[in-house]
Design brief:
With about 325 residues, the protein is α/β, with parallel strands linked by helices. The chain has ten helices and 15 strands. The chain is about 30% helix and about 15% strand. Bound molecules: threonylcarbamoyladenylate and magnesium ion (MG).
Length: about 325
């Protein structure tokens, strides 16, 4: 379904300038963040935002995260409850998204928030996206740069594999350091974990001095919360003690595995390698993957969340 030739832009000043010019002109441009690659469009332009939904095949009820370079820029778009201010001060720039009440005068296209009164905001840390956001000088809406429902991209090559011919450009900043999408926290009825992610919930709870409420399915209009999401082609079986007939054994920590997310049992390394490993197993034609148990704390909680969604039955 191509239409445009997707430009691959280098991680230098001319590359950033070209990406910024395309974004300002209303095009869809993919760029690295420390979590995963995002597919950006200027958030104040309904036609530009529609281009993202079209390129991804994303359902319209699924709102987008708006990326800005500084807390000051975020503060111009939304009202931050005290707890949100505290988290922004502690963890921005970084892998944390805050869902807060949008200001009436924010000027954000309605599709970005799916018509809700709240907006998801993030100040990313990656140096290239910081340079890009400063040069664009506008809020940039960006979901992960993958076709809807598929595994998020952690390299420019992953972006091209899914979206080449459907987007104007990708800014190639190499592999993403964190490798999992941002942690999302909302504040309706107290600080609530909407999606575990690249910032461990324990760090957020320590900062707030209180436990996070956890959003249980149902009301969430967060597609990251759709049961089947982040799906590779292969079928997954979780918490496997051993590989069965015809299964590839994906491990964590020491042991005899076909592939290993982290032989030393390092959750940061496992997070950074998760999506590229699932893609590599798909590429080599693994039909079924048995996944060893991964500890359910720190980044392990987000890894297990993504694995559960990848293992969920699909339509
Ligand atoms: O790390 C990340 O968060 C990456 C990079 C590119 O920043 N972005 C990302 O976007 O993962 P996406 O679209 O794949 O996931 C965004 C999630 C979705 O589950 C969406 O429903 C939720 O954020 N979301 C966005 N706006 C929201 C809102 N106003 N209220 C509740 N959830 C919202
Ligand atoms: Mg996504």
């Amino acid at each position: 379904m191509g239409g445009v030739e997707t430009e691959i832009l280098p991680a230098d000043a001319p590359g950033v300038a070209r990406a910024a010019a395309l974004l300002r002109a209303g095009a869809s441009v993919a760029f690295p963040t420390e979590t995963v690659y995002g597919l950006g469009a200027r958030a104040d332009d309904a036609a530009a935002v529609a281009g993202i939904f079209e390129a991804k095949g994303r359902p319209a009820f699924n709102p987008l995260i708006v990326h800005v370079a500084t807390f000051g820029a975020a503060d111009g778009l939304a009202r931050f409850p005290e707890a949100a201010k505290r988290l922004a001060a502690a963890f921005w720039p970084g892998p944390l998204t805050l869902v807060v009440p949008m200001r009436a005068e924010a000027g954000i296209a309605a599709a970005v928030t799916a018509g809700q009164p709240t907006i998801a905001l993030r100040v990313p840390e990656n140096a290239l996206v910081q340079a890009l956001l400063r040069e664009v000088g506008l809020p940039v809406a960006a979901p992960s740069a993958n076709p809807s429902g598929r595994v998020s991209p952690t390299t420019a090559a992953h972006v091209m594999a899914g979206l080449s011919g459907r987007i104007s450009a990708v800014l190639d900043g190499g592999p993403c350091a964190v490798g999992l999408e941002s942690t999302i926290v909302g504040f309706a009825g107290g600080p609530t974990l909407l999606r575990p992610g690249g910032l461990p919930a324990e760090a957020i709870e320590a900062c707030l001095g209180q436990p996070l409420a956890v959003q249980e399915g149902g009301a969430v209009s967060a597609p990251g919360q759709l049961a089947s999401h982040y799906a590779p082609r292969a079928a997954l079986r979780l918490n496997a003690g051993a590989a069965g007939e015809g299964e590839v054994f994906l491990g964590f920590g020491p042991g005899a595995f076909d592939e290993n997310l982290s032989p030393t049992g390092d959750l940061s390394e496992a997070a950074a390698r998760l999506f590229s490993t699932l893609r590599a197993l798909d590429a080599r034609g693994a039909g079924r993957i048995a996944v060893a148990t991964i500890p359910d704390h720190g980044l392990g909680r987000a890894i297990n969340d993504r694995l559960r969604r990848a293992a969920a039955p699909r339509d």
